Amino acid sequence: MVIPTPTSDGQTEINYDRKTEVKAFDDTKAGVKGLVDAGVTKVPRIFIHPPQNIDYINNTVNTQLKFPLIDLGGIDKDPLRRKEVIDEIQKASETWGFFQVVNHGIRTVILEEMLDGVRRFHEQDTEIKKQYYTRDFTKKIHYNSNFDLLSSPAANWRDSVYFTIAPNPPKPEEFPEVCREIVTEYSKQVMGLGRSLLQLLSGGLGLSPNHLIDMECAEALAMICHYYPACPEPNLTIGTTKHSDNNFMTVLLQDNLGGLQILHQNQWIGVPPTPGALVVNIGDLMQLITNDKFKSVEHRVLASSVGPRVSVASFFGRDNGPSRKVYEPMKELLSEENPPKYRATTINEYTAYFRAKGLDGTSALVHFRL
User: Which domains, from first to last, does the chain contain?
Assistant: First the structure.
């Protein structure tokens, strides 16, 4: 059955075979960048979201709420300062699920070069880029447009390249030449920062500093490098649909164009691009093991007529690995007044469900609630 689908003029078109058009787009292996390079002036139908989604997207509430910004400077030298930072991170993780960090130890020149490396990958010759194009998630390096393209009701205006960094990274020569050195260096630095943040989060839970690390929350690391080309009709589509992350924690490097928003107190709040800062957010699995103490918050990225926007999301505890470790609400946090709210699961099971569901605007956590 063919379902009437909105077109860029707001009408519906009966003779629209979405499956065929999606396959035609996917077969180009050129992504959204390829559409822009071809000079499209209208958003193709497969990217147009239904009117109710578009109305919701455009209904952004301006607010005076201040997004949490946490200075990590001095935490390894001053115990009092460390305690202050732990308290700040605890509060942000319980209320916002998001915060920005500065003085995190990764030099600005490395952050800038990482963003440049992502641009170089996505803007290189399409024939070179095509060799990485696949929908096989077991590949340690893969590039595509929309991981859920084949199942989503409407595609997002972005392309992505994925790198599996830990526990079993690709061989150095397997990384794309245009970004090989910086991906290797940045991933080392972000892994170190991630472990430090997990120690601070452990402290915020009243646990020993290495508790979350001992639970293998830092064993798996995947980096997803997004490229959002300028969109000719940004009011018809979106960069990334509303979702929460299927991991323990994400460390995000974003450029200065903005567009990332989080859902806080039923309002969409923009995450301000801050020079030298990294955005940290709690993932679904962290909410699960903390029994809702730390919140995995829904977020999205708007499409824009300005671009390209570039970001690098480092996911701790993301994707399939050799571990079959079972995760459930930590016994240290449970009591008669606070019984477990989720059933036990594995990273593999959670990721498989998340991918099958796609970015449909609902939280995968609901599926695992008791």
Answer: 51-321 (2.60.120.330)
